[in-house]
Amino acid sequence: MTREQEKKAEESQQGEEASLTVTERKKQAWGVDEQEEGVRRIGIKAGRRQQEGGHPFGTVTALDRWFVLKILEVASHPPINTALWDGKLIHSVEQPVATLRFHDRLAIWKLALNPELHFGDLYSAGRINVEGDLVRFLEEVYSGLKKNRQRGWFRRVLKWLGHRRIANSLSRARDNIYHHYDLSNDFYQLWLDKVAMQYTCSYFPDPEMTLEESQTAKLHHVCRKLQLKPGDTVVEAGCGWGGLARFMAKHYGVTVKAYNISREQLRFAREQAQKQGLADQVEYIEDDYRNIRGDFDVFVSVGMLEHVGTPDYTALADVIDGCLKPDGRGLIHTIGRNVAGPMNPWIERRIFPGAYPPSLREMMDIFEPHRFSIQDVENLRLHYAKTLQHWLARFDDNTDTVREMFDEEFVRAWRLYLCGSIAAFTSGELQLFQVVFNRADHNDLPWSRAYLYQQDGGVARQ
């Protein structure tokens, strides 16, 4: 497709989107339409359907209290107060971080059956509330679950049922991305940074940096790790709103081909490249990473691997091997884990369909098949927690606007997602890996890591 044809397609799509009613926009945001075969169980809308009909069921019974105490036992009795729909506390501690309140009996049963899936649905629907610091509450729950690793066969079966993965095939990947990234650019602009709209971990060499300063620092950090120099050719797999590609072109004098399958993001990226006079250096391509073609000095992927899934790591490895020049460099930036394990099922089914954060051992399936050498691994876990704190503050400042764009349930779901992500990083449930690699016989390597911490990177252009 020529650039002129792409422009006409974009204009046609913009016209269609502009004509959407408020109801249709909300329907889009809640997830793939329920009539689409095979994806009807994902998206916040699906969670809403599963949680409808919860109402208080009369007098609180001894069985109700027993179920709640069993739920708390699984989480190693975190320091929280617990109350039911009659307003009375059934469990209290001296210094609670929050109060967990159930509003109906069925909510208790659902949470007892599958807490990892149903807590998010019930909280979003307002059938359970957390009164107090939601981040602290979730940190205590994560900590308690770590202490209680004993699981019977029934619990393991329930966990398997709740963690059945959503595939990322070529045909399915676009739907998965649509669920999360095509909500609307206006929504993300409310709480992401104003410099490059980076929806990935910032870098805080100074903890007092603003979000904009830290995201700029992250972009420089990535470029220095890749040792970019004027004239390099770069391919980016999964470019988001295109901020990294534009930054590399503007400040490091490279040319970039950036691949993405989110039309909303690509439309924004192309508009910004035109405005900044970078269209000749940056080409945004609407296609899957598996279709990358060409020879490049640099391969980079920031925040895409989480959407790939381990079954497709060998395909990604083949893509990198096929496009990276003999003296090429590469970097993969991804959310990960210390120990392999499934994504939280509520996050995967309601927020990030198809997501999977890998362990470093699993990531080696990308590097080993073609004998790539790992040159550097950095864990920015606490940097991501701080990034999320900035996002949450901005989200909270704009909740009225978000509520008008979508509704109250969407606000609660996304606030839970942001708070839960902070807790996952501060508790060590999630990590943030940056892995730098090249070919095994490439010997033009730096003798120290000093180049990473030069203020201007040596080649960056102001």
UniProtKB/TrEMBL annotation:
Compositionally biased spans, kind Basic and acidic residues: 1-11
SUPFAM superfamilies: S-adenosyl-L-methionine-dependent methyltransferases
InterPro entries in the record: CFA/CMAS, DUF7884, SAM-dependent_MTases_sf
Coiled coil segments of this chain: none
Domain DUF7884: 70-143
GO terms classed as biological process: lipid metabolic process; methylation
Annotated region described as Disordered, given as residue ranges: 1-34
The keyword Lipid metabolism is annotated on this UniProt entry: yes
Classification via CDD domains: AdoMet_MTases (cd02440)
A Pfam family it matches: CMAS
Protein origin, superkingdom: Bacteria
Gene3D superfamilies assigned: Vaccinia Virus protein VP39
One example GO MF annotation: methyltransferase activity
Keyword Lipid metabolism: yes
Entry keywords, A to Z: Lipid metabolism, Methyltransferase, S-adenosyl-L-methionine, Transferase
Family named by the database record: Belongs to the CFA/CMAS family.
Protein name: Cyclopropane-fatty-acyl-phospholipid synthase
Organism placement in taxonomy: Bacteria, Pseudomonadati, Pseudomonadota, Gammaproteobacteria, Thiohalomonadales
